[in-house]
Amino acid sequence: MSAASRAAAGHPAALPAAALLAQCEQTARRRSGPGGQHRNKVETGVVLVHRPTGIEGQASERRSRPQNAAAALFRLRVQLALDVRSAAAAPTPGTLWRSRCRGGRITVSAEHEDFPALLAEALDAVKAHAFDVAAAAAALGASGTQLVRLLAQEPRALIAVNAARATLGMHPLRP
Question: Among 24, 29, 69, 84, which residue has the least CB neighbours within 10 Å?
Fold first, then answer.
């Protein structure tokens, strides 16, 4: 998906890295925990705060600041996918979704850079279809099983969908 297409999609998790970072406040920090003198002297930890939403992504487990910045950005994208819902009534599959969903199968790893944008699109569709996963999957051109498997790759997403389904008197989804 091109940067222009992602920006047009409107979800912050789908923005190109430069555009998303422009919306963030970035701070460095020292890592905590064991690791000796190097850990205590060098600020390699990174905290990103998305100014429009206040959502945060952080990483400090690596010794390299650029690696921590990349991990923090990915975690921020996932958190944005979980917390920010699009206002669209019934979203149609985007270009990225169509490129990753073929024959009803969704092909993406939870570690891939496309995962947060796909997760956001899936959660938007599930919400737009009143948490009826079968209807959301049909609208996205995927099978219900594949959509549940995508949600299960980020356990917090499946927990949130199941909590919403429980309030509506629906049975929980199982991965």
Answer: 29
